[in-house]
Write a structure and sequence with these properties.
two-stranded antiparallel ribbon
């Protein structure tokens, strides 16, 4: 009985500690999500926003129109978001992993250079967006000057005014911002590998490539999964960088789901459709989150 009471008391204490976080989640996350869902099921625009009595319930009509209306570009925005996300994550991970392997070793100036690498992560995204906007400018931009100096281009390229190059520009900017995040998480994973494992590999005659693929990568698999999943979530919902650099242009070539939802709500004042677009973004990220949790649970069961 004493033990049972102690267990019950511990459970109650744990509940009390978790209660503030639960209240915070309900008030600042749960309530806005529910309100946004309700808003997406109504017909609310600039005329009916302040008149709840005139806000008609239309069910899933807003979602249907977003995917079927010829004036809607949600489908294109989803494709653009996937291209932007996959392109960014691929290079962020490759470069971040390479830097993590480099800075995991001890050499003179290691701490200094690792700190310098973090500048792009610490810099506000809007500032980074303005920086790259000037760098990719057609006249006076350092990117054009550098490429022309190498003889790759004969004349300046309008990076942000052409559909294909505009997507390349925002992907490059986002890669630069996200590299330190990948690097630091992967370095954390690398520090968990015992030095004895590498010593055993050397004694067995394994080369650097074999050690990398047979020891390092398998042993930091949880860190890699975390980096890729969190990177997908953070990149898929990017708004400020793209809005500062291109505002979704030219000709909607860099329009993402996040920028499209913002445009519908605060430029076209179609609040219900903007909420519906935001919910589509949420559903995609929810699926990714569930998939990640499933992978983590399977990994724990194996271990």
């Amino acid at each position: 009985m004493k033990r049972q009471r102690k267990l019950n008391g511990g459970a109650k204490m744990g509940f009390l500690f978790a209660l503030p976080a639960a209240i915070y989640m309900l008030v600042f996350i749960g309530y806005p999500m529910i309100q946004n869902l309700i808003l997406s099921l109504k017909n609310v625009d600039v005329y009916t926003f302040a008149q709840p009595a005139n806000q008609k319930f239309v069910g899933f009509q807003n979602y249907i129109e977003l995917f079927t209306n010829k004036n809607s570009i949600l489908s294109r925005a989803i494709v653009n978001t996937l291209i932007f996300t996959v392109g960014s994550i691929f290079f962020q991970f490759i470069i971040g992993f390479g830097l993590a392997l480099l800075f995991n070793k001890k050499f003179p100036g290691c701490s200094f250079f690792r700190g310098v690498t973090m500048i792009s992560w610490l810099l506000p995204v809007t500032v980074a967006g303005l920086l790259f906007k000037f760098m990719f400018a057609s006249s006076g931009g350092i990117i054009n000057q550098f490429l022309m100096a190498l003889g790759i281009f004969d004349k300046p390229l309008d990076w942000l005014l052409q559909p294909g190059s505009a997507m390349v520009a925002i992907v490059v900017a986002n890669i630069w911002i996200g590299i330190p995040f990948n690097m630091m998480l992967l370095i954390t994973g690398l520090t968990t590998i015992p030095a004895d494992v590498y010593e055993s590999c050397n004694l067995d005659g394994a080369n650097k490539v074999q050690t990398l693929f047979m020891i390092t990568i398998p042993m930091i698999k949880p860190a890699i999964m975390s980096v890729l999943t969190l990177g997908f979530v953070y990149t898929f919902k990017v708004f400020d960088l793209v809005w500062v650099m291109t505002k979704g242009g030219p000709i909607n070539s860099t329009e993402l789901v996040s920028t499209y939802a913002y445009r519908l709500s605060f430029e076209e004042f179609q609040f219900s459709k903007g909420a519906a677009a935001a919910n589509v973004l949420f559903l995609i990220l929810l699926v990714v989150g569930i998939f990640y949790i499933k992978l983590i649970n399977e990994e724990e069961e194996i271990m």
